[in-house]
Every structure is written in C-alpha cells, then in structure tokens.
Amino acid sequence: LEIRPGGIPAFHSACERLLRLKRAGEARSRDGNCSLPVVIGCVVSNFAILVDVLRSNDFFGLPSQDVFLLPLRRTPMLESSSGELRLCTASSLLLTHEGSAGVFSALAEPPKSLDETLESATGGKPGPSVLQALEARGVKYVAMCSSSN
After folding, report:
1. Is beta strand 67-72 parallel, antiparallel or unpaired with respect to 38-43?
2. What DSSP designation does 112 have?
3. Which neighbouring-strand residues pair with 8?
4. What separation in angstroms does the CA of 20 have from each of 12, 25, 31, 52, 136?
5. How far apart are CA 83 and CA 60, in angstroms?
6. Are 35 and 66 in contact (CB under 8 A)?
7. What is this structure's pTM?
8. Per-residue pLDDT tens for 75-108?
9. What residues form DSSP beta bridges with 70?
10. Backbone angles phi, psi at 24, to 5 degrees
C-alpha cells in the first residue's frame, strides 16, 4: 500500500475522509442517520489482498454492509500504433486490466462481498447489480475518484 505523509497508508487516509463525510451527513440528517456506500474497484489479481486488508483493519471504521467490491476484468491489450492485438505467446493474447473505465461496466454486474458472495448487498442471496443496490438505497449521485497504486 502506498504510504502518505505521516506514515498513513493511502487507503486508510481515504477511508478516514469518507468517515468524516459520513459524520457530517449524520449531523445534518433529521434522524441522525446517514448511509455512505463505498464501491471499490479492484483488479481480480489483488481482490484477496484487498479483502484481507479491509478485514484485518476492521474496514478502517466503515460499516462492512456499506462496502461493495467490484472485481475489474482483464482485457486483450492492443498495440497503440497499429491497433493490433498483442500476443503473450504464440497461442495466447496479452491481457491487461481494464483500468478506471472498467468501473462503468462492472457497476451493472452483481457485486462481490468480502466472502465473494453477495452478502454485502443482498444478505447472501444472488441479487441486483451494484447500481441497482445503490438505487434501492436511494442513491442519486455518485462521486468517483481513481488511484492506480
């Protein structure tokens, strides 16, 4: 994990900012409640690592039911100059991660919870896409930030 000034990992720092935002929302809410769902896009190869980091740090204070993980796929890599597919070997394509753009298609797919089931969104039953789960919670707007570390 990238370390920010003061020795705090970047992910921890981002979660602290989200908690401050959640508390500000609770202070302004009529009933003192504020749900702040957090959707994290993660390359499939790092999925288990991210789950372990979240669990071992008690989600950095975020409610676990508000955390959705989007495994981002790998797609064939194109040669930038010719647009041709790049080969890894004579019989296989070179794959690369979708990057930030993959978040949009992943939102339409069912989420992965920390146990690679849908428990964070649907109580363990197969269910809606992340976008549908957010809509069901009344989310109207989404802010997105990207980090490639």
Report:
1. parallel
2. B
3. 4
4. 13, 9, 18, 24, 24
5. 42
6. yes
7. 0.69
8. 888 888 888 888 888 898 888 877 777 778 888 8
9. 41
10. -65, -40
